[in-house]
Amino acid sequence: MPIQIYNTLKRQKEEFKPLKEGHVSMYVCGPTVYNYIHIGNARPAIVFDTVRRYFEYKGFHVDYVLNFTDVDDKIIKAAKELEEEVPAVAERFIDAYLEDVGALGVKQATHNPRVMETMEDIIQFIDALVQKGYAYAVEGDVYFKPRAFEGYGKLSHQSVDELRSGARIQVGEKKEDPLDFALWKKAKDGEIAWDSPWGEGRPGWHIECSAMVKKYLGDTIDIHAGGQDLTFPHHENEIAQSEAMTGKSFARYWMHNGYINIENEKMSKSLGNFVLTRDLINQYNPQVLRFFMLSVHYRHPINFSAELLESAENSLERIKTAYSNLEHRKNSSMDLVSNQKQEDWLNKIEELKKRFEEEMDDDFNTANAISVIFDITKEANVYLQESQTSTKIIEAFQESIRDLMNVLGVTVEEEADLLDEDIEALIAERNEARKTRDFARADEIRDMLKEKGIMLEDTAQGVRWRRG
Ligand SMILES: [Zn+2]
């Protein structure tokens, strides 16, 4: 079955047809790098990485571009407060972002363009919009005129007049119409700035994505994605800029992920329930956080609480335990001669894999896909009741769990795969440490093993161990 994607532009699910057979071009709006990311920023990182992984699982080649907004009012303000240069602040929080999402199992993007490095393309883009009559310069600023672009409002499904009623001209803005938005902002005294045909300044926020998409992926792309809050004005403005520029359709599928609530309340700085991804990663296994985020369909709001996170932790543990039970049983399994019963088991595994794919094909329904993985583990546990097991079937079960969990970006084997000889070696090292009265090291080894689920018991015959 082909993949169905809910397209915000059409407000319905549509069959995914790539521009180029076997390829997907995908652009995701990235963070403004002036602080550590909160879990609201972690959600799109995880969700769209999973979309990418599923395409790759299905054999597509994915070009995945995620930008960093490294010049912006918030960064300039942060740099002032920190008494640092803007590029230094941006660099530090880009590193922190990559570290955080890396811990969450997010694959590296094909490109991570930054505003400062794309300045020339951005200026050329703005200049072309001015030449074409979609934008105008006024006293060092440049504004885009949404009214000049037919189709403005098509993504957020609002008419220009509806949008006009919500727009305001802020003090100091020289725009002609409240709907107009800045493509270029004149530099204030002492602010970081670049030369342009309109004088020294820097780009407005929306234009960078249009310029980066064009530079790295072309005039028309398959998928443009981001958080739901970006639909208007950011994505609406991107469409206007890009389509005014090229005269072609900009992105064929628009995907938006839902909000995150904290203990049933909207997350906001003023409510003081702002949760940094970094703090959570220090508290929980990041894989648990990822698994939790995927336990809800990406378009639905997700409610975040310690309780729900713990429940995700237990669920993930159950899958990992099933996987490691299979691993242990592999040693006593045999290369049995193929028979009907074995064929039935292999078919059952294949059917379950197909069900997983059907759920993912249906607008990446990870919540249902996870329940299929649970069905696989249930079947595996039933199979393990048999007195004689076949290595081939054990491995088929393991492979299905491993591959499908890998689509979700969660590894099942690292902890389960601490080999018996590794455990023995650590126990020997611990014994040695105790002999030399290095109790700190001895305790450290015991704790490390405990974390991996290995319990030690000191007996008269020496140390015995078991998997807890
Ligand atoms: Zn964007």
TrEMBL record:
Record key words, sorted: Aminoacyl-tRNA synthetase, ATP-binding, Coiled coil, Cytoplasm, Ligase, Metal-binding, Nucleotide-binding, Phosphoprotein, Protein biosynthesis, Zinc
Enzymatic reactions: tRNA(Cys) + L-cysteine + ATP = L-cysteinyl-tRNA(Cys) + AMP + diphosphate
Gene Ontology terms for molecular function: cysteine-tRNA ligase activity
Motif, 'HIGH' region: chain positions: 31-41
Entry coiled-coil feature ranges: 309-366, 416-443
Location of Phosphoserine modifications: 270
Keyword Protein transport listed: no
CDD domains (alphabetical): CysRS_core (cd00672)
Subcellular location: Cytoplasm
Residues given in the record as Zn(2+) binding sites: 29, 209, 234, 238
EC code: 6.1.1.16
Comment on bound cofactor: Binds 1 zinc ion per subunit.
InterPro entries in UniProt: Cys-tRNA-ligase (IPR015803), Cys-tRNA-synt_Ia_DALR (IPR015273), Cys-tRNA/MSH_ligase (IPR024909), CysS_C (IPR056411), Rossmann-like_a/b/a_fold (IPR014729), tRNA-synt_1_cat_dom (IPR032678), tRNAsynth_Ia_anticodon-bd (IPR009080)
NCBIfam families xref list: cysS
Name the record gives this protein: Cysteine--tRNA ligase
Organism, as annotated: Virgibacillus halodenitrificans
